[in-house]
Model the fold of this input.
Amino acid sequence: MSLRQRLLLLLSLTVAAAVAAVSWTVLLRIRHVFEQRDQEETALFVSQFQREFQHRSAELAAAVDHIAASERMRTMAFELSQSGDPSPYVNEAENLARDAQLDFLEIIGPDGKIISSAQWPARFGYPEPAASETGPSETGKEPFLKREDLPDGTTALGVFAVRTIDGAQPPVRLVGGERLDQSFLADLPVAPGMTIGLYTDANSSTTMVNLNTGASAPVLAAFDPVRLLGPNGTVPAAIQYKSLIDAARTSGQQTSGIVNPNGPAGPREASLSATAIPLKNQAGNVMALLVVALSRSGMVDAQQHIRAIAYGVAAGGILLAIAFSLWIAARVSRPIEQLARAAGEVAAGNWDVHVPERGRDEVSVLAHSFNHMTGQLTSQRERLIQSERVAAWRELARRLAHELKNPLFPLQLTVENLARARQLPEAEFDEIFKESTTTLSAEIANLKAIIGRFSDFSKMPRPELERIDAKDLIARVASLYATAAATKDSKIEFETDVDPAPMPLDADPELLHRALSNLVLNAMDAMPEGGKLTLSAHPKGKGAELRVSDTGAGLTPEECERLFTPYYTTKQHGTGLGLAIVQSVVADHHGSIAVESRAGGGTTFIITLPGAAALEAVS
Done:
C-alpha cells in the first residue's frame, strides 16, 4: 500500500470515527433528553390525575356526608331502629342517588346487609363487605377504590365512601360511589401526542392452591384489550400494551416500555413510550392500571435528522479527506515517490537523474540535497573513472613492461653475442648464429604470446548465445583433459559428477569452454605432485551449478579475496589475467563465480549460471 493510499485510509477512518463518536454521543443525549421529557410529562399527568382523583373523592365524600346528615335519612334510620322492617325503603337508595347524582349508593342495615341498592335493587338482603369492614365512625375516612358488581354480570370500578347516619342506634350506614371510567379520563388535560387509558379489569383473578404446601396465590385473568379504555372509547391497538400491563399487574409497580401500535416490525416513528401505573385499594391490591403513552416520533425524527446530518458530514469529511490526501500527495507523497524512483535509478547506475525542487519545505530541502548528492557523485564518479583509467593504464604499462622485460633481456644478450661472434672464424660464427637464431625465434614467440594474452583481455568478445545443456559442456571439457591428466607423470585422477536431469542453458559454448579449461589448467597446476580433479554439474533452482575442484595446497583467505583481481597471480610465471577473464565470461552470462578453499584442503571454483527461461527474463 502506497503512502497516498495509507494517508487516504487514515484520514477517512479518522473522519468516520470522529463523526460516528459525535453522532453516537448526540443520539444518546437526544434519547436521554426525550426520555427525561417523557418522564416529566408522565409525572405531570399522574399528578394531575391524582389531583382530579382527590377532587372527585372530596366531592363524593361531601355528597355522601350530605345524604347521611339529611333529615330524611335520620328519620329513616329512626324508623328502622323502631320497627326493624326495611321493606318500605327498598327503593330509597335509587331516589337518593339520583338526587345526589351518584353512580352507586347502598343503604346498609345494622346487621350489615343491604336494605336498598341504587345500582342493583335485587341485592336486597345481601351483605356488603365494604360496610362491615369499616369502623364505628367513618367520618373523615378517605374514599377508596372498589370494584362493584352490576346486574348484567359485569363489574365496574369506582371511588367509594362509607358514612354512618348521625344518631342511628344501632348504626345504619351509607356506601356511595362514582364510576372511575372514560368519562373520568375525559376531564383530564392531555398533552399533544399523549395517549391515556385505564385498564379496569386488572385484578379479576382466581385463586390457585398448592397441594404440597397448602398456600394459595391469585392467578391473574387473561389480558382483555376491550378493558383498556381511553377518553373516547377503546384505546387503538390495545393488544400491543399486553406485555406492559401484564408486567405491571404482576409486579404491582410502575412499569415503562416501548409500544408500537403497528407491531414490533412497525415504523419507529409510530412507537410510543408507555408507562403503566397501578391503582391500588386500601389493602394494597391492584384495582386498575393507568396507562400513559407519549409519542416517540419527535425523538425518532430528531435521531434520523442527526443520522442524516452525520452521514452528510461523514461523506463530506471523506471527500475532504480525499482532497486533502491528494493535496498531501502532491506536496509530500509524490515528491517522495519521485525521490524513491530517482534513488532506484541511481542504484541502477543512472547518476544523472534530477528531482524537481518546489517550494522551501522539508521535502524540497530533501530534493535539493538529493540533487546535490547526485551531482557530487557524478563529479566524483568522473574523477574516479579518470583516476581508474590512469591507474589501469599505468598498471597495464607496468605489467606489460614487466612481462616484456623477461624476453627482451635474452634477445639483447643474443644480439650482443652475434655482434661479438662476427670476429670469430666462419665455422664458429655459423654455430653461434644458429644457436642465436633459435633463441631469438623462441623469445619472439614468447613476446607474441604475451601480447596476445593482453590483447584478448582488452577485447573480450560478447557471448553468442545458443541453447546448450550443461552436461554436454562438462563432457566436452572432460574428454579434452581427462586423457592428458592420466598420462602425466603425476598421475592426476580425473573425475566427473554430473546430474542426469536436463540443465538447459542459453550460453556461448566456446567462451564457457575456454573458462572451464582455464580453471581445469589452474587445478592441474595446483597439483604438481598429483591429486584428484573433479568436474561436476547439478541443477540449482532454474539454472545450473558447475564446480571445478582439486586437492592441491589450497589458498589463504587473503588470496581468495584477490584471486579475480586483474594481474594478480599466485604463480611464479603468469600474467594474472586468466581468472579475471573467467569472471568476465561468467558475468557476461549473468552468472556468478565463487571460490572455496582452505590451506592444505584443496580449492573449489563454483560457477552458477541462470537457466534458459531465467536468462530470457533478465535480457
The longest helix spans residues 3-68. The chain is about 50% helix and 20% strand. Residues 341 and 355 are 9 Å apart (CA to CA).
